[in-house]
């Protein structure tokens, strides 16, 4: 039994597109599990597969790790496909994963990035390859190192997920919880393999560096270093340091100040 899991905050249109993509798959999921974070459960349109909705409430930061663990806990399937709410599955995504569902492996799918107005085009769901570009970092890789694992599109058996221990809920908000998950997988000797199960990431505004997530990233980077004695997200941390937002010491990071509104606006990707 195959369960597709996603976690949601806002992004109403993105969720509908994800569900439409699942509806168009050559193999339908046995169920979809949706966890809404810090917001009520929404009405979901009728679909040719069951959809089970849950909610998780936590003041302040988004409980990304806890929400994924809740989705896995509530799922009935013995094979779990995790899709970010911004991702639309390609037509063969479930079939591509299904061929590997009995392996004791952590599977990383492929992500392509839809351009800004792609989802506004007529019939875009059948021409997403045309309207998208490959991942600039992972696009040419046949194997994904553990340090570059990303939770946008991955899958594993329920037993592998439990063997890894799920996501560490000590990570709160944005950043590093997925790298921690893959580092734990490596420590537990779970192989990480890349397969061309394609999901198409829907465009949304983003920041480089992500100043809008500064506090979360600093807190999660410190937790990651405490566990692994390595720094995650080094490019972002260097950018924060260069802007005078943090003091980056060998074994800890201190948040010096919050970014000004003008700094955040300047970091918005064009």
Low-confidence stretches: none
Mean pLDDT across all residues, rounded? Answer: 94
Shape: globular
Instruction: Using the 3D structure, state the CATH architecture of the largest domain.
Output: Alpha-Beta Complex
The CATH topology of the largest domain is given as Spore Coat Polysaccharide Biosynthesis Protein SpsA, Chain A
CATH homologous superfamily annotation of the largest domain: Spore Coat Polysaccharide Biosynthesis Protein SpsA, Chain A
Could you tell me the number of beta strands? 11
Report on the structure:
The protein has 270 residues and is of the alpha/beta class. The protein has two domains: 2-201, Spore Coat Polysaccharide Biosynthesis Protein SpsA, Chain A (Alpha-Beta Complex); 211-266, no CATH class. Helix content is 29%, strand content 23%. It is built from eight helices and eleven strands. The protein has helices spanning 12-23, 64-74, 93-98, 158-164, 177-187, 214-228, 234-242, 261-266, and strands at residues 2-8, 31-37, 51-56, 79-83, 87-89, 106-114, 132-134, 153-157, 192-201, 246-248, 253-255. The strands form two sheets. Strands 1, 2, 3, 4, 5, 6, 7, 8 and 9 form a nine-stranded mixed beta sheet that branches. The protein has a two-stranded antiparallel sheet with strand order 10-11. Strand 10 and strand 11 form a beta hairpin. It is globular. The model has no long low-confidence stretch (mean pLDDT 94).
């Amino acid at each position: 039994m195959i369960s597709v899991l996603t976690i949601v905050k806002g992004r109403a249109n993105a969720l509908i597109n994800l569900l439409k993509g699942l509806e168009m798959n050559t193999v339908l999921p046995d169920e979809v599990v949706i966890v809404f974070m810090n917001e009520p459960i929404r009405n979901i349109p009728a679909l040719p597969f069951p959809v089970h909705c849950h909610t998780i409430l936590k003041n302040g930061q988004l409980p990304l790790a806890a929400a994924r663990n809740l989705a896995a806990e509530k799922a009935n399937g013995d094979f779990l496909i995790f899709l970010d709410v911004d991702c639309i599955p390609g037509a063969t995504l479930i079939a591509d994963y299904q061929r590997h569902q009995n392996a004791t492996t952590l599977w990383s799918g492929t992500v392509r990035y839809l351009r800004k107005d792609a989802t506004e085009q007529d019939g875009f769901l059948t021409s997403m390859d045309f309207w998208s570009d490959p991942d600039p970092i992972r696009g040419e890789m046949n194997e994904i190192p553990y340090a570059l694992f990303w939770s946008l599109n991955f899958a594993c058996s329920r037993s592998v997920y439990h063997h890894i221990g799920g996501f560490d809920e000590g990570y709160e908000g944005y950043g590093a919880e997925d790298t921690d998950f893959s580092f734990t997988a490596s420590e537990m000797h779970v192989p990480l393999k890349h397969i061309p199960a394609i999901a198409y990431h829907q465009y949304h505004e983003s920041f480089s560096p992500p100043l809008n997530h500064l506090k979360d990233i600093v807190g999660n980077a410190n937790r990651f270093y405490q566990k692994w004695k390595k720094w995650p997200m080094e490019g972002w941390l260097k950018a924060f340091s260069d802007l005078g937002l943090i003091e980056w010491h060998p074994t800890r990071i201190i948040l010096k100040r919050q970014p000004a509104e003008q700094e955040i606006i300047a970091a918005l990707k064009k």
